[in-house]
Amino acid sequence: MANANHENRASGMTQVEGYGGAVVPVGSVVRDDTGLILTDRPSESAVLVGVEFDGEPGLLNIEDSLTELALLAETAGLEVCGQLTQRLNHPNSATFIGSGKVEELQLLVTETGVNVVLFDDELSPRQQRQLEKALGEDIKVLDRTALILDIFARHAKTREGAVQVELAQYEYRLPRLTRAWTHLARQSGGRAGGASGGVGVRGPGETQLEVDRREIGRRIAHLKRQLEEIRNHRERYREKRRQSATPVVAVVGYTNAGKSTFMNAISDANVTTRDQLFATLDPTTRRVDLPNGHVALFTDTVGFIQKLPTALVASFRATLEEINEADILVHVVDISHANADEQVAAVEEVLEELGAGEKPVVTALNKADLLDRDDLDVQMKLAQALEAYPNAVLMSALRGEGVADLLETVASHLRKSMVPVRLLIPYSQGELVSRFHEYGHVDKEEYTEEGTRMLGRLPVEMAGRFRRYFE
After folding, report:
1. Residue 310 CB partners (closer than 8 Å, separation 6+)
2. pLDDT tens per residue, range 300-347
3. Distance separating alpha carbons of residues 419 and 65, to the nearest angstrom
4. How far apart are CA 101 and CA 107, in angstroms?
5. Beta strands in 211-327 (DSSP E)
6. d(CA 452, CA 224)
7. Global pTM exceeds 0.85
């Protein structure tokens, strides 16, 4: 069987072995004695552009940030063929990067034959339009926000996730509609032909753009109504949870830190797991038995990332409200990652934005199986992490190591959040004794002539229901 290789992406040609080095167009079909061979058509390819601003250090340095952007590009199906960096005092108002770098970018695009230019920061609509003019209509100019929105759109499986992503996409694209209608400017386009464009040049270009904006505005309003329904549904669900007094644990963390693997390790969640950024988006809630015999609801949330688009935070607020309703957070950290501290800082930043910065936290230092624990530097890093992060537990969700210790730590902190009670429950109310055992912590239990006397701790929400039996 012949093989297609030696691909020249700039020319769109490839050399096929077994045919005397013949060069054929990529995507064409050739035949040998064993059958047909389709030469590989390359997926979209991109170059990355990153800018480091003086006096405004990000959570990650520019090299690490571009490495992360490359992983995002790979998740979206892009092949990265090069990158360009620049250091500036502030972004260029017209093109984000300097005019000299724009020329350098034009050369890099030509040399690599890519069809996508991907910026590591969010571009304004004007900057995006100017860059598209400079690079040509065949080159797509995208920023980090557009890339993340595309990944979310690919991975959202439930109706709730799809609605939230669609709303974020529309709100991001609404101010960027001009380029989508440039074909009208070429055909007719109102004033697009100039004040004296001649007969047949004036037309509905600007009007069509306004019609499109209104249509998107209506779609955004419709999606917001759907999200409000979702929010109300979740609120009713949360109210039922409050009545049952089942404690809620929200699992948070940087994307690809291992939250889904952790959920699978503690329950039968069967969440899809891949070594990929934003592999899973849709929230998963599972009932988990804790080591002390109690139960808790563990809810997985969407992964965070540095420079998380504000449109996504706003659109996913209905889902992220689960974090605010939780009794405790489990922050899953990829302790094997070189930028673990920076990733923790990014998660804490989003939690502050959501108003959950004061929630009690148990830190799961995950992926311990990837560490060389005989290395002195690794030992020092682990010692510092165990001391620095709140209630830290070292574990490997993949191998199940340390998971029981983490659940024990969670159970301990949930127990501390309960209120002490002393009750005398009549024998006719035996179901209350069972509820005490299921949701509370029993220190002492004895049977008297009047009923069951119980000493222990109960969740605040449930204690009120036992008030008539307080001693």
Report:
1. none
2. 887 888 888 777 777 777 667 778 888 899 999 999 999 999 999 999
3. 46
4. 10
5. 248-253, 284-289, 295-300
6. 52
7. no
Average pLDDT over residues 49-54: 92
- Give the pLDDT score at 274: 63
What proportion of the chain, given as a percentage, has pLDDT over 70? 80
DSSP assignments along 120-175, one per residue: SSPPPHHHHHHHHHHH-TTSEEEEHHHHHHHHHHHH--SHHHHHHHHHHHHHHHGG
Q: How far apart are CA 388 and CA 340, in angstroms?
A: 12
Q: How far apart are the first and last CA of the chain?
A: 85
What does the block give as tokens for 29?
């079909």
pLDDT at 26 over 80: no
Residue with tokens 């996730």: 161
Q: In Å, how far are 17, 182, 184, 186, 204 from 199, measured between CA atoms?
A: 57, 19, 16, 14, 14
- Of the candidates 347, 389, 400, the residue with the CA atom closest to the CA atom of residue 365: 389
Encoding tokens for residue 224? 């917001």
Integer Cα distance of 182 and 249 in angstroms: 50
Crossing angle (nearest 10°) for helices 205-244 and 317-325:
20
**Burial class (CB within 10 angstroms; exposed 0-12, middle 13-18, buried 19+) of 16:** buried
pLDDT at 180 over 70: no
| Counts of helices then strands in the chain (DSSP H, E) | 15, 18
Least confident range of 44-58, 236-250, 331-345: 236-250
What is the H or E stretch that residue 463 is in?
helix 460-463
453: part of which helix (H) or strand (E)? Answer: strand 452-458
- Arithmetic mean of pLDDT, 132-146: 91
Residue 54 — very low, low, confident or very high, per pLDDT cuts 50/70/90?
confident
State the Cα–Cα distance between residues 273 and 259, nearest whole angstrom. 9
> What does the pLDDT look like over 341-399, one tens digit per residue?
999 999 999 899 888 888 899 999 999 999 988 889 899 999 999 999 999 999 999 99
- Torsions phi, psi for 34 (to 5 deg): -95, -5
Report the DSSP beta bridge partners of residue 48: 83, 118
Residues with Cβ < 8 Å from 313, sequence gap 6 or more? Answer: 320, 350, 353, 354
Question: Percentages helix, strand, coil for the chain, rounded to the nearest 5?
Answer: 45, 25, 30
8 Å CB contact between 80 and 74 = yes
| Helix extents (H) in 248-402 | 259-266, 310-315, 317-325, 340-353, 376-388
**Residue 181 region by backbone torsions, left for phi larger than 0, else alpha for psi between -120 and 50, else beta:** alpha
SS3 at position 296: strand
